[in-house]
Write a structure and sequence with these properties.
7 helices; mainly alpha; two-stranded antiparallel sheet; single chain; Ferritin; about 260 residues
Length: about 260
């Protein structure tokens, strides 16, 4: 089962960013919703971004290559994937890490990348070419109105299905999925931050650094979750799977 969660699978899964949100779009649905959207409550404060991130988003546009533009598209989808998976696993297990990370952090991550998309898609010169199905055209759609677990690229869809399938097997599997998602997110952000730095795209660097700092925190939250159910090595219990190392004691930790 674990072999489906390879770094290669995630790195090749990219599509037009299919999210949208703003501080006025907080929904009032309870539980899992009506099946047409995410249906999760959010405090309006969850859409507020750090001052440095908002300033970067409001700054002058950087010059984007096709490769750099596609990193925005890809990271938007990866953050939404994490949000959808974590909400789904919370509904199954009621594990606080999933709910807290989805509603307090991933929601803001999606907001930040959504604003990057809006900033650059105002120009016809910027195109996201990493799409293999008809775009869902969710650029300005509130998160609560998105079809959770539905994407416009087959590999993202397959990945979501595989992650959820594993995560629904047991609480341990679910927490392991969290470790996998965050390590992959960090690996991707490391690579994309290098591209952004080489392109002198300071606004994208600021946003992606914000995302990566969140992923470090999430990794340790899932690590603690595994330890709390008796898995003494936490995320490190996964070891290396298909060349991807899930044991990262070097990741920064904030004092609790």
């Amino acid at each position: 089962m674990n072999k489906i969660f390879t770094k290669g699978t995630l790195l090749f899964a990219s599509l037009l960013f299919v999210i949208g949100c703003n501080s006025d779009s907080v929904g009032n649905s309870n539980g899992s919703g009506n099946g047409k959207g995410n249906g999760h409550n959010h405090d309006a404060n969850n859409t507020e971004l750090p001052t440095t991130v908002q300033s970067a988003l409001n700054s002058k546009k950087s010059t984007l290559s096709e490769e750099l533009a596609n990193t925005i598209s890809y990271m938007g989808n990866e953050e939404r994937l994490a949000y959808d998976v974590y909400n789904k696993l919370y509904e199954k297990w009621g594990t606080k890490q999933f709910r807290n990370i989805a509603t307090r952090s991933e929601y803001r991550h999606i907001t930040a990348v959504q604003q990057l998309v809006q900033k650059y898609k105002m120009s016809d010169d910027v195109n996201f070419t990493n799409v293999d199905k008809t775009p869902l055209k969710y650029m300005n759609t509130p998160i609560e109105e998105m079809e959770a677990g539905t994407y416009d690229i087959s590999k993202i869809q397959d990945l979501y299905n595989a992650l959820v399938s594993k995560g629904l097997q047991s609480e341990k599997d679910a927490l392991e999925v969290g470790c996998m998602v965050e390590v992959t997110d960090i690996d991707d952000l490391d690579r994309y931050l290098q591209i952004a730095n080489e392109s002198n795209a300071s606004d994208i660097v600021e946003v992606f650094t914000f995302l990566r700092e969140g992923s470090y925190n999430h990794y340790w939250a899932f690590d603690r979750g595994l330890k709390n159910i008796g898995i003494s090595e936490g995320c490190c219990s996964l070891g290396t799977i298909d060349g991807v190392n899930y044991c990262h004691p070097e990741y920064p930790q904030k004092e609790r």
